[in-house]
Amino acid sequence: MAKLSVLRLTALTLILGFTFACATGDGSRRKKKEEFTREGNTITVIGEAPIYNGDIANAKQRAIKDAKVNAVRKVVGEEISNKSQASDGESLGSSLLSKTDAFVKSYDIVAEDQGKIDTQPILKLTVRCTIEESKLSTAVEGLLADVGNPRIVVLVPSKVGGAPVPPLSNGNIAEAEIIKGLKKAGNKIVDPGTASKTVKPSGLNADAINALDSGAAILIQAQSSGAEVLVVGSVETEDQAPVTAIGGKALDRPLFNTAATGPYKVILLWGDGKVVASGNGDARGADITQKVSREKALAGWAEDVTKKVNKQLKDEWFNLTENNTIILKFTGLDADESTKFKDDLAELTAAKDINVRTSNVSGSEWEVTYPGKDALFMDELVYKKDRGFTFLATKKMNVKSAARGVVTLEFTSNK
NADP among the record's keywords (predicted)? Predict the structure, then answer.
């Protein structure tokens, strides 16, 4: 398959595991590189699981599952990196890990060992897995086709010959042309009929578009439509002097001449609502009738905007995916516990950076840079909380919600 252009992550299925880091002898807090070797469709990896109440049989089943996940993750990561421009193929492909059993044809336990993380007994297996390469390759191609194109809602209030044309209405030429162009580029669109059930764009105009921020009602409504990105613009036609000659040659009859201009923005509908692109569109239209000259100008404006949006969005999308900003809110940790939690996130999860906005026992808010969306981060937290988070000997972590780039946790005492 030819290398795909810059793609986008939006797959939201259960993650079974990411990087598992063990405590090192010098106490350093860094992610551990997992050991693995690959020969063709056979990959040898490590699988680990805690031993609870001396139940080694149960731990072995969990360690085998962990090994299968690690094997599939490695192969998926290589496939994605080879077929796309992703620098972090393993994280991008994590949504396929729920199908691990379908991709592992067979496995053998090569070695078995036991150890401890702090006081927790751990079973460590070396497992050789045989991968169903063709099945996995097909799944990766399907993922990339889906992941590379965000789900978009388009809102374009227009003023044509002085008459307003509201967004999501029949006869909105500019909006319809942008939708057509975005679809042609492979993007998924929330159709106007569906969007109109939740989005109420009254009062949306050029000034309102320029002033849009993360708390704007229109963004919340657009989120409710199921979209991940909002493309919003405003266009107005202005009739120009008739065209009487082209290239110095007089026309048999003058042509009506219309200009269409207006701004646009591309806004992410999660987290802080980042504006990833903005600009202005401009076009001209000419025809023997004024109505058609205006329509041509609107279509030209839409084409100009669509080209810019596609380029800007595609140029940004993998970076946005691999460095997604998630707002993490939680209660119940004091300063010392928060420090340990931050260390655990840095060492044991795929989090790339953690910026503390506010931190106190009654309510903390952190900004986490993460290669995936909120549901993926939530699933990793749930998976990892039983696998080495150091402070959880005294605290219980409950995931309250994960939506639109905000993950909310509650910590309560185990006592």
Answer: no
